[in-house]
Amino acid sequence: MSQFKFSVGPWNVSEGADAFGPEVRKSIAFDKKVATFKKMGFDAVQFHDDDVVPNLNDLSEAKIKEKAREVKKVLADNGMVAEFVAPRLWFDPRTIDGAFTANSKTDREFALWRAFRSVDIANELGCGLVGLWFAREGTLCAESKSAIDGVKLTLEAINQILKYDSKIKIFIEPKPNEPTDRTFYPTMGHALTLSAASIDPSRVGGMMESAHAILAGLDPANELSFALAFGKLFGVHLNDQNGMKYDQDKSFGVENLRAAFNQVKVLVENKYGSKGEYIGLDVKAMRTQRDEVCYKHLENSMKITKLLEAKAQSFDYALQKKCVAERDYETLEMYVLEHLMKG
What we know:
Blueprint: E1 6-8, H1 30-40, E2 44-48, H2 49-52, H3 61-77, E3 81-86, H4 105-125, E4 129-132, E5 138-139, H5 147-164, E6 169-172, E7 182-183, H6 188-197, E8 204-209, H7 210-215, H8 220-229, E9 233-238, H9 257-269, E10 279-281, H10 296-313, H11 317-325, H12 329-341
Parallel strand pairs: 1-2, 1-10, 2-3, 4-6, 6-8, 8-9, 9-10
Antiparallel strand pairs: 5-7
Helix pairs in contact: 3-4, 4-5, 8-9, 9-10
């Protein structure tokens, strides 16, 4: 039996549009997605604020909470819960130049308003966790912003969120590029530094996404380990990436199987999930997939995760210890590869 519980976002079953082409699949109603997720074995749903409450900018705070309660009922009716809510701070015209680090004070205030509404929505859904992906917190023109001011403004925003609600937790999901080419927070180290500098470090942690680590030229398992070492791994997004390209969100393990194994191995070894954390899958269907098989990438990613979990559980730690003691890393490396290739 798996030690993991799994989560998925509604955006992971999409119409398939990309920067160079139109939609290729039909839209699926949210309630139908949730019902299918449950049948597939998922336990929780990840949300952006406007996944829960569309057009929330036009609604009162009371109406936003009311709409959130309606979504909670849909989840409950399907035996599901919410994992987190993340403010979508990169679509609105007021976030063209950044959100918390925008050069306009008015735009920064809007971003904070959206963050507060995400806290409200999270509380209505009963999840108590808000996610921050700093999509535009950086620059396209290096001289357009001070990185020092940007860090201070971001820390101020994090502190304001912590003050807004005394129980809410925040994770920071670092990403090195896209849509900005000079982000202020590209790695888990940056995320945890913001955590340490906040007014309540116990409530600020990290979210590791495999593809984001690869895009930074880093090993995802080491990024996981860094957060785990400080008790700061609040969530994971497992997926895969073919090199330092755009953020591909490929099915987990399809490009870098050994790297995928080491991610699962470190999670197994450190009993990830024992405090209620989820294995989040942030994977997108290939553009070529037809409507009738548009969930296959989720099915495959969950299957690969569980297969690698079984490989981690059957790993020969005695042999590993012996090889380390003898400094015989060639034997250890061959064992790992043979272990992964066994049926």
